Amino acid sequence: MIETMNKPATLIKPGQTIGILGGGQLGRMVILEGRKLGFHFITLDPAADCPGSQVADQHIAAPYDDPVAAQRLANAADMIVYEFENIDPTVVSALERQVHVPQGSRLLEITRHRLLEKQALTAAGIPVAPYVAVVTEADLHRGLTELGLPAVLKTTTGGYDGKGQWMLKTEQDVAALPKELFMQEQPLILEKFISFHKECSVVVARSIHGEVKAFPPSVNLHRHHILHMTVTPAPLAEGMSDKAVRLAERVAASLEVVGLVAVEMFALESGELLVNELAPRPHNSGHYTFDACLTSQFEQFVRAVIGLPLGPTELTSPSVMVNILGEHGEAFNQAYGTLPGNVKVHWYGKKEAKKGRKMGHVTVVDDLESAIAWIEASQIWPPLTEREKKVIYDK
Ligand code: AMP
If we measure between CA atoms, which residue out of 302, 273, 216 comes closest to residue 30? Predict the structure, then answer.
């Protein structure tokens, strides 16, 4: 049965324009889906030929903190969203005074700052890895006494794909930390090292009307701190997927998210789930939804921010998503002409292929064994290690 929501109309209507802060692949895929719903798009990104600008109606090539550019965006857009979190919240709050910014600057402030994020989660009763804030070297040593080794030291802002992180296994690792780390304004965060069984994630939508809907959980494999593979349905022990969904929904509700929040978690052998990180936007681990769910995360994002009823999130097929990084490009190009029809290609239009740069992804829409068999046979990516096989095959 289709639910009719007895709620106010949408914030904007087809024919109106959504402005996007950021023009990366996430913005690009939001635009591709948002166009279906009838919206126009304008992107703001420092790069003139970014993935988003190639499919937007208009593009402003300028730094995010350029007040003239921000004003142009505000004038041209009927609503503004952001597609990544490394944007200064003061820029967003200045825009908020002029145009509707449904995600809001508060969510950005929290999720771009690891310490505020951990504090907000802890205050909401969401389990996280034990942590301490670190400003001085003395704090670090106190923290290490409390948490013990191994531990992970992280910058509070600006870190992504493993950047701004130091793994501390031994006293030597601690002694080798750059001294400049303790001379910055921003505190650091020291976390207990969690010997997790698997990493999993749930993307949840929450609309401007407070409707909450989660996508099915996935299990993720990272290589060199960059997402490599996402397997859905999540190969997790009985009951863990439901638990992950409930936890992610609690995160969305307690932080009053509008739009999407991706909740990355550590699944422990004991059955415990700890939230590691949040992203207030579409997420790489939700790319599978484009081809393997009734509604994609990108359409859901647009629905949530404009106030449409959220789309159904059921899986239409099991799938395995694999990222294509710069170093996979050549092998991928060679295989391109023979890719089977159930290998769904998403290419981001980036001109320069660099090692570790996300150039595109494929979603293999098939059962786990067949999808992995194709991925391994394609030789586009280095084969799965025994540990990785255990993560995706064992429950
Ligand atoms: P993050 O940038 O916090 O998402 O961390 C990137 C990756 O580092 C995670 O996906 C984990 O694989 C690993 N990691 C981060 N924090 C911890 C931790 N406290 N314990 C163990 N591994 C971690």
Answer: 302
Q: Is the CB of 181 under 6 A from ligand 1?
A: no
- Identity (one letter) of the amino acid at 104? G
Atom 19 (ligand 1): residue with closest C-alpha? 193
The CA distances from residue 117 to 128, 139, 166, in Å, are 10, 20, 19
240 CA → ligand 1 middle, Å: 20
Q: What separation in angstroms does the CA of 34 have from each of 41, 297, 304, 309?
A: 8, 11, 12, 15
Residue 34 sits at the vertex; the CA angle it makes with 32 and 35, to the nearest 5 degrees, is: 70
Nearest Cα to Cα of residue 392 among 376, 224, 378, 286: 376
Q: Tens digits of per-residue pLDDT, 87-105?
A: 888 899 999 999 999 999 9
State the closest ligand 1 atom to the C-alpha of 195, by its place in the atom list counted from 1: 21
Report d(CA 144, CA 131) in Å as an integer.
10
Cβ–ligand 1 contact at 222 (below 6 Å): yes
Distance (Å, whole) CA 293 – CA 99: 32
Q: Average pLDDT in the 125-136 region?
A: 97
pLDDT, residue 161, reads 63
Distance from the alpha carbon of residue 69 to the mean position of ligand 1, in angstroms: 35
- Residue 374 is encoded by which pair of tokens? 């194709």
> Quick one: DSSP state of residue 49?
T
